[in-house]
Amino acid sequence: MDIDPRRSVESPVLNKVSGDFYSTRFVRIAGRFQLVKTYVESWVVDNPTVSITRCNARISGTVRYWKGTHPATAVDILVSWFQGAITGAVASFTAGGVAGRPYSCAYRSDSFRDMNLELDYCSSVDVEPKIPAYNSHAHNNRPADLSNRNITIESSYRDAGIAVTVDPVHTVIDDSAPGFASWSVGELHDAMETSFGKFNSGWPAWNMWGIQAGIFDSAGVGGIMFDAAAGFGGAGRGPDRQGFAVFRNHSWFTDLVANPTTQDEAWAMRHFLYTWVHEAGHAFNFLHAWDKARPDSLSWMNYDWKYDQRNGTDTFWGNFRFRFDDDELLHMRHGDRAAVIMGGDPWASGGHLESPAGAMTVSGPGSDIELTLSAKTHFDYMEPVFVEFRLRNTSDAPVLVDGRLDPRYGNTTVYVQKPNGSIVLHESVVCFYGLPEMIELGPAPGGESDGGDRYSQLVQLAFGVEGFAFDEPGQYLIRAVYSTDGIIQASNTLPLRVGFPVTREEDRFAPEFFTREVGLTLAFEGSMSPYLAKGLDALTEAAERFGGEPLGVKAATAVAQSVGDDFYRRRDEKMVKHHSADPQRALDLTDAGLASYQQTGGAASNLAYRGLVELRTELHAKADDSAAAKTEVETLVKDLGTRGANAAVVAQVKEMIPSTPAARSRRSSPGKPSKRPSDG
Q1: For residue 488, what is the DSSP state?
Q2: How far apart are alpha carbons 141 and 402 in whole angstroms?
Q3: What are the residues facing 19 on neighbouring strands?
Q4: How does DSSP assign 416-456, residue by residue?
Q5: Whole-prediction pTM
Q6: From the centroid of its chain, how far is CA 280?
Q7: In contact, 388 and 373? CB cutoff 8 Å
Q8: Cβ distance 15 to 2 under 8 Å?
Q9: Which segment of 368-382, 383-397, 445-459, 606-620 scores lowest on mean pLDDT?
Q10: Long-range contacts at 550-554 (CB < 8 A, ≥ 24 apart)
Q11: How far from the centroid of its chain's Cα atoms is residue 641's Cα?
């Protein structure tokens, strides 16, 4: 019941009443009867009529169901109290003019939801402050009328109506293993499945797991919600929307101290709080504000720098009141239970996106930035779909852009029209929160371009939160919207066709390939987690069965990304090396793919060809074979020149040979990708 003020001025009354229906029955187990509850559906009443007397309150209104078709339904709720204490309530529903039996409800909590948060720490960052505690007046950039209060993870969610209980027992994971310098997505998910005490305890449930780690493979990422999967499966065997990580060694937290006394220290603590609350918010099925067509929302789920790009420097924190926006409060407090609860519906479902906002965005003429999607026109059945995202400067002056074009960074939103005509939002299974990676695009040339006016990335769209996006033969249409630094630019509409199985062997193999384990291994860009072992086995089989064909090449690359790098996982409270990099096996796996790209001409394969040579250059470096790396780079340079690649691209490719064997090792030097002008 959301009809009377709560304890904080930042906890608005939404004037709604909501509830969940359950089916209950008694079953006999081991000679004893016990009650079994099965969740059925959720409902809400908007703007109910409320009358209050000395000892009760009557609340009535029209019921709105979140899903399905129902007869017109009204509810009448009588809440009673005695000497200030609520004694219970009776709810009576009338559906289609027929009164149902009343429900007698006991008082349970003064919060809408109760959630348990389990926090674990890596030993390298098991230092104070372990959890954020920020005084709202500590930093001078704040709303003038902001109340002076101490804000924590618990109080932030308490204002939203959610009672968060942080488990007092913390597991400390020893991450001191030699060579272990940063975390991959696969290692984070594996650590959760190994460490989270409630991972499989009667899910879905109001349980969440957070880990404070040192640093991510991409050092610019400060927080990540890594636990999103399709359907019920998670990374091989469990629910999704349960786990997130905060990276304590990020540059944001350099000045972090338990009791800030300077503005820099206050900034660090404020961002520490923001990162924890933001990443935990994803587990409630919250997308970013701009993904919900609310880029100017003053919410935990927006980015301060994206808001400032639209509204002016320092305006986010100058107006932010440390709360979720009203639409998010509606979802969190009163939304369809399956769409809110951890381990329920997949991420991005039930979040007001069944009809994707922004799917019809069209950019008018005159923009200084052009976003173009390109790919080959036909993909074989089961072949993972990769699309080139290219930004180009069309003006006569240099333009700065954020070069993170992969949807997992939040700058691009991707829409896919399936063969049946439905349009879906394609959401990445991971969400990275980190620093912009600004790239300067040179002015548009008067004649031929050397490539400095454009920038490209090859983006994998094979697998998202809804599963495999291109798992049916037929015609697909893809559009993307780039939104950052005040720029909102829609792409062209890219058509592509997915072919039918050519052989009976392909058709029979498809059920083994279209699994969550395969999809997550692709999305994680390789993983040696035992929880994804079936996926790695299926990809290995695909690489062997389909050889130099496109499916075999991409499957072999995914296996090479897995076996070619070290993989660490928790064992007895300590991170240990579970798999040692096997660069020679990874090179052998990708030999056929390299030959295929070298023999296949045309600009459409340039980025994929270059990406494979970059991977193989790293592998040769690990195998201490710089001569082989040099030979492959020189061949790539020659081939790109023959295929008409821009001069800037050819010049940059020449610099790909590592100066030392470890220079390109993910473990030795995690960091940002270098600028990559368009290969076409």
Answers
A1: E
A2: 25
A3: 43
A4: EE-TTS-EEEE--S-EEEE---EEEEPPPPSS---STTEEE
A5: 0.71
A6: 12
A7: yes
A8: yes
A9: 445-459
A10: 550/379, 550/380, 550/383, 551/380, 551/381, 551/382, 551/383, 551/384, 552/592, 552/593, 553/592, 553/593, 553/596, 553/597, 554/383, 554/384, 554/386, 554/593
A11: 37
